[in-house]
Amino acid sequence: MSETKPPIALSVAGSDPTGGAGLQLDLRVFERHDVHGMAVATALTMQTTKGVHQVLPVFPSVAGEQLHVLLGDILPDAIKIGMLASDDVLLRVAMVLERYEIPRIVDPVMTASDGSRLLEQRALGNLCERILPGAALVTPNLSEAEALTGTRDPEAAARILLELGVQAALVKGGHASGPADDFLLTAEGGCWLRAPRLDRGPVHGTGCALSAAIAARVARGEGIEDAVRGAKDFVGRAIARAVRIGGGQRVLRFDDGAA
User: What is the pTM of this model?
Assistant: First the structure.
């Protein structure tokens, strides 16, 4: 009997011991999309649903060697890049990935919702110069978009991000007031993706889940706009079902519908 290889997605991100974000959540999202998930850790975190206590980046050489050895054996169909923690880790990751033409979905994680820094300030230049160019999509929230481009205007920020070399930009409005509308810009043009704001209070891991779901859908062969729309709907359903498992933020709970 012949075997059919499943779609494969790789997460390059930090570990979250709560399971509500980071590598642990990415792998749950990949599985939910019937995509084989792989993971390379960039950092260990001490955190709870109440906040981040400490971030410990892995040794840069370890991050680079994890990727080098893994990609020498298995080439994923898409890569999600999340928290990179330090400039040195970022550079090692970039050094390996630039050898491969694999669609990259970049979630430029900079701070946790409690304000804890998840990427060194000095890494912003190399993020723009070494990680973003050639990426299939970058998914900043408004604060991240402002840090990368100097503006919180979604349409203006998206245009600047394309000038930096990304193929598409999704500027997320989930942290704004009012509806949770996102702006997507590709080489073909831009569009607003409208969505109501769900009154569930703070929910952990929404950005991680969205970028992971997009990566999973790209791995399955979907185009960027279809992948973004499908992922946004997937995360919206998970927010609506979010539950409190600790003393802080709710965590996403996925439904039984098709992902």
Answer: 0.96
